[in-house]
Amino acid sequence: MVEAKLERDTTSFEAGIIACGSCEQWQQALALFREMCDSNMQPSVSGFNVAIGAVKASGQWPQAMWLLREMSITKVESDVISFAGTMHACEKCGQWQHALALLRDLVEGKLEPDVISYCIALSACNKGGEWQHAVALLRQMCEYNLELDAMSQTITMSTCVRWGQWQQAALLFDELRDSRIELNTVAYGLGVNVCKQSGQWLQALLLLRDVQESRLELDITTYISAVSACQKGGQWQHALSVLMDSREAELDIELNSYSAGIIACQKGGQWRQALLLLRDLLEDNVEPDIICCGAGVSACEWAGQGRQALALLGLMAACSRLRHHVGS
């Protein structure tokens, strides 16, 4: 009977800690945890883990680190969940050094790290701009015979893309495509972005076709990258085709998409197409900016269409006055 009551009371404390954590009331969660300790109830690994989860939800990484240290002091054996929760708290606050140190402790200890632990560390590297560490962690996962998944690969690719390491990102994407891992929308989007940055417009279009055939839902960002890749490659016809595809997909087309298409038309000497895109832009209730209007003006000027160029300049002036009126 006594043992049953002890278990019930411990469970009640843990439930309360979880409830506080879900409401981001980490101070109350820690108060409950300390009350549980003061009630002569030795917290189990489960109790410590729910407390770590509660402070993690609020980004209180010092408190999570303290709880992990307390587990060692009180002779409660931590598990992978304990480390992963503390790492996640550090990751949320950009403490990539602490996150990597915890992963190292996990690897060097008796516990076996899992894919989730590595993904948390990879995300911490992403926020901290540590793309070299991210790539090294991905290789380390292979050394420990952990099965790479789409998440670990895309986080590493995203880190390289975010910090301008396009060649490394392209290498990772090639490895991902050669593997048996099924590519998701994020992976395809990163692949198209890499193609844009490296000037491979044809490869960007092929990837776009692959993802369309796979029936994955593409977001507008991937279409923008493909349009920009075509624009950089001087392929105005393909840029317009991708824009048409995005409209048929009923996506909310952003200004960047139109700007890339208009610039592509400008470079290709297609002033009529540039004006048509500007018309479509206005019909979609997208406010033109100086970049797309300027590209349209240049396209008209190069083609000797002075009247059209003056009309666009008038549109730019009207938009400027409207913005000033709305902002005042």
UniProtKB/TrEMBL annotation:
The keyword Repeat is annotated on this UniProt entry: yes
Keywords of this entry: Repeat
Repeat in keyword set: yes
PPR repeats: 9-43, 79-113, 114-148
Matches recorded under InterPro entries: PPR_rpt (IPR002885), TPR-like_helical_dom_sf (IPR011990)
Protein name: Pentatricopeptide repeat-containing protein, chloroplastic
The species this protein was found in: Prorocentrum cordatum
